[in-house]
Amino acid sequence: MRVVSGIQPTGNLHLGNYLGAIKNWVKMQDRCECLFFLADLHAISMPHNPAELSASTREMAAALIAAGVDPEKSILFNQARVPAHAELQWLLNGTARMGWLNRMIQFKDKSGKNREGASIALFAYPVLQAADVLLYKATHVPVGEDQKQHLELARDIAAKFNADYDTDLFPLPELYITGSATRVMSLRDGRAKMSKSDPSDASRINLTDEDDMVAQKIRKAKSDADVLPSELDGLDGRAEARNLINIYAAVADVEPQAVLAEYAGQGFGAFKPALAELLVESLRPIRERFVALKDDVAATDALLAKGGEKAAALAQPTLDEVYRTLGLLR
Questions:
Q1: 75-78 and 33-38 as β-strands: parallel, antiparallel, unpaired?
Q2: For a surface tag, which of 94, 149, 169, 221 has the fewest beta carbons within 10 Å of its beta carbon?
């Protein structure tokens, strides 16, 4: 299995990033051939500050390593170090269809009411995502619910390319089921996803939060007055309660039902301190290593450069095949 996955290089990493993607990446690298990249080329599809993009790309690399992604086990790099990503996107633009891209929900969400003012990069973003995956002939791609549509597009592009040019150049990548990937919700609103863009810092656990801050945020997290049920069905209609149970389960690597079996009949006065202690003990070593790594710019750049060289070496044969298949002379 060759797994390829990317993550936007956004600053202010939080618990949602860790439990939603990074924790599963760490598990994958022990059983698959993995390429993990910082999606800095994707980031320029929206207005951005160049200095902040550079800094947040390094920060994200430091966070991944601190969380357990091992550059010796996996290939870790940022897209911009492998120009073949952008090159293959252009070559696949001849295969992708406007109708397919017009159906992409994320473009509609991100462009809002000003679709005519959105960048072409934002519209063509899914083709670059397809190139990210097809460039390495990935067999599996771990994606959340919000990215399933983009994986389907990558499969459509691969299938049409193969059919149009009578080749089997691209395998059709499959969804990689990571098990209990957790969609972490806001600590202030169990119906909204935990996000760095939320104006309330109390809505999220940042990976840089000190122990006392983590405990304080859990203590003040929105919950309800009812006791915890013994079965998952008892959490229906209790978004905040479900969120806190899911967080505990994801951090402890157990099923939510096991958490309820331990705390059934108890209120949040008992459960929140237990959750806070678990988070503090689990996140402290990650935070300490992250803080040390993110200030060592030279070391981070060296790791990303080394990963970029490995990725480029894997990418080049595929890119060469695509050029030949399209009849392009170089």
A1: parallel
A2: 94
CA-nearest of 197, 204, 276 to 18 is 204
Calpha distance 310→304 (Å, rounded): 10
Q: How far apart are CA 274 and CA 269, in angstroms?
A: 9
Question: Cα separation of 160 and 158, whole Å?
Answer: 6
Q: Could you state, in chain order, the average pLDDT of each consecutive group of 10 residues for the chain (330 residues)?
A: 91 85 90 96 92 93 94 97 98 96 81 81 93 97 78 96 98 79 88 91 94 97 96 96 96 95 96 98 94 90 97 98 96
Q: How far apart are CA 48 and CA 9, in angstroms?
A: 12
d(CA 278, CA 42): 35
Q: Tell me which DSSP letter residue 113 carries.
A: T
List, in sequence order, the alpha helices (H) in 19-103.
Answer: 23-28, 40-43, 50-67, 84-92, 98-102
Residue 146: predicted pLDDT: 65
What is the radius of gyration, based on Cα positions, of the chain?
21
C-alpha to C-alpha distance for 12 and 22, rounded to whole angstroms: 14
**CA torsion angle 290 296 300 302 (round to 10):** -150
- Residue 134 neighbours by CB distance under 10 Å: 25
Nearest-angstrom CA–CA distance, 193 and 211: 23
Return d(Cα 103, Cα 234) in angstroms, integer.
Answer: 37
CB 101 within 8 A of CB 107: yes
Q: Give the residues across from 38 on adjacent strands.
A: 7, 78
Q: Name the percent of the chain in helix, strand, coil, to the closest 5.
A: 60, 5, 35
Single-letter residue type at 205: I
